[in-house]
């Protein structure tokens, strides 16, 4: 009997011991192979057994939708001020050349790592394998900026100096081989600004200077009519939206005008509406006629609207009036004529005081 | 910086120096005795260096500004350094700028020229130190090759000896000219600070660290980005190795780096009659001796009064 007990105890002990040396259960599958960074198969928090960073380019697809708009870089303690980095704009431009990993080269699939998590905040340090934060940021930015700006002027980023926007073409006329209308006019500015077409849909693997250098720094002017790419490529780019259109809606004998809302829809856009993407009003991908009554879109403006934002702070008498008392016919662009209400004896003063547009 | 170490030391040096001078006067040919009086060349295994990655350098010249500011040399404000027209002609470090940045075309990307910072390389076996007959130049254990105003007699041997044409002479100073060159921020480093140029470099094109580690890092970069670099670490072996090391995207000869052998410059680690000295020392030494005597007699006359 004793022998059997002993045997059982031994057996139990050995299975326990065995269980302990068992390889732990597979971790939750990550989008990235752990071994890219960890040398040993079972890293712990205390001993992550990390490889020396090889600047692995993990090409995870990330959307720029949630990308932060601007990020403030630097401490501002040095000679130069902080940099308001237009992160989202750069992220969208980055889509044309490879995506987020161009900068976020260490992306293990979870939350985006902050640059400062790996790159040291101080230059005097022991781990010299990767540059400190200041160096890393400058190396990233200056490469492109120097290439298309032809200068490493610090004030381009550190300061109020506006970075020149690319001089985008309003429209591009393409010459094609189609004999019933050889010219296709691509209304570039409309597509980008109003129709919400992302640059990256057409432009891939191009350098910054292919847009930022055109029309600047003495580059030759653009050709009035360009020869089109081979048919397949150019049609594919357009078909994703224009699948149902017929040939004649794009092909014509001569360059076409850019989109004119007043001409096509019968409703003139004011400068505020003009700056909006079409989808801001025409929601759900439908471009049907909308109700032109302001309140159909501007539902809860009342109580929030401040007239002084237009540059004129209304005086007490006028601030009590309804908008249409002065702005008849929903005309808000031109200042109303005083004589519409007041006869010749009206006071010379304005209906308030000018504060200037902020 | 170093001058704060006190006049007492300076006085001692002078006295020791007078002895040396007597030695010289005793016989011009007994120069080896002087060579032995020079400090020993101690190379600490963890001596520091700087890796200059010319493919990372953006040509902002903040390093020039940092260097001048930290060494009390006059400089226009930092903003003026953005003017890229200085790159139109090649410059050399001199007594007014201990380091300068030059620009060279980049055949891989004409829009992004290579810019190369030049300064003393802080040789492990410095020819300038060997050439100096009064021991005014010395290699510190930390890597710096420094120069002592109190000892220098302005003989210009170091200028001739340096394979990188670094030491410069204050030509406009007729009486007590000074040799000026990058001191690898010896004083700042002793205070635990980074060299001023390394600190000012926005792109960390200059990496300061133990020389051995820098060599490893440099090799690693070349291995990882073979398209970006030529497979060579300049300074690793040149004239016996230098504290400052360079990486480049095109042939070093195209960036005006001299082609040098692996052996220390002639005259180094040998007694000084050998090598170059055998050829040009005697006339220059004579010239130097005359200068010395003038200098000694001048100093003797003001040694009595408080300084
Ligand atoms: S580069 Fe010239 S000045 Fe500098 S340590 Fe070497 S020999 Fe001396
Ligand atoms: S190490 Fe110091 S002295 Fe030498 S170039 Fe840099 S800042 Fe100037
Ligand atoms: S500060 Fe750095 S990046 Fe600027 S010129 Fe000097 S080495 Fe090049």
Structural class of chain A: alpha+beta
Helical residues, percent of chain B = 25-40%
Instruction: Report the structural category of chain B.
Output: alpha+beta
CATH topology of the largest domain in chain B: the name is Alpha-Beta Plaits
Strand order of the largest sheet of chain A: 5-3-4-6
Please name the CATH architecture of the largest domain in chain B: 2-Layer Sandwich
- Write down the oligomeric state: heterodimer
Q: How big is the Rg of chain B?
A: 20 Å
Main beta sheet of chain B = 3 strands, mixed
* Binned strand content of chain B: 5-15%
Overall mean confidence score, pLDDT of chain B:
79
Summarize this entry quickly:
The complex is a heterodimer of chains A (358) and B (307). Chain A is of the alpha+beta class.
What does this structure look like?
The complex is a heterodimer of chains A (358) and B (307). Chain A has a four-stranded mixed beta sheet with strand order 5-3-4-6, with no helix packed on it. A two-stranded antiparallel sheet of chain A has the order 1-2. In chain A, strands 7-8 form a two-stranded antiparallel sheet. With 358 residues, chain A is α+β, with helices and mostly antiparallel strands. The radius of gyration of chain A is 31 Å and the shape is extended. Helix content of chain A is 27%, strand content 7%. Chain A has helices spanning 2-21, 87-94, 115-118, 133-149, 188-194, 199-202, 209-212, 231-242, 261-265, 271-274, 294-297, 316-319, 323-326, and strands spanning 71-73, 83-85, 172-175, 183-186, 225-227, 251-252, 312-314, 352-354. In chain A, strand 3 (172-175) and strand 4 (183-186) form a beta hairpin. In chain A, 8% of the residues are buried. Chain A contains 13 helices and eight strands. Among the domains of chain A are: 81-158, Cytochrome C3 (Alpha-Beta Complex); 172-285, no CATH class. Chain B has two domains: 3-36 and 274-302; 48-264, 2-Layer Sandwich (Alpha-Beta Plaits). In chain B, 32% of the residues lie in helices and 11% in strands. Chain B has helices at residues 7-26, 31-37, 62-70, 127-131, 157-161, 186-190, 196-200, 211-224, 276-303, and strands spanning 48-53, 100-104, 114-118, 137-139, 145-147, 168-169, 179-180, 206-210, 244-247. In chain B, the strands form four sheets. In chain B, strands 8-1-9 form a three-stranded mixed beta sheet, with helices on one face. Chain B is globular and about 55 Å long. The chains are: A alpha+beta (358), B alpha+beta (307). Chain A binds chain B through residues 54-55, 79, 123-124, 128-129, 131-132, 134-136, 138-139, 142-143, 146-148, 150-155, 209, and chain B through 56, 58-60, 78-79, 82, 84, 109, 111-112, 192-194, 198-199, 201-205, 207-209, 213-214, 217, 220, 224. Residues 120-123, 126-128, 145, 162, 164, 166-167, 181 of chain B line the site of one iron/sulfur cluster (SF4).
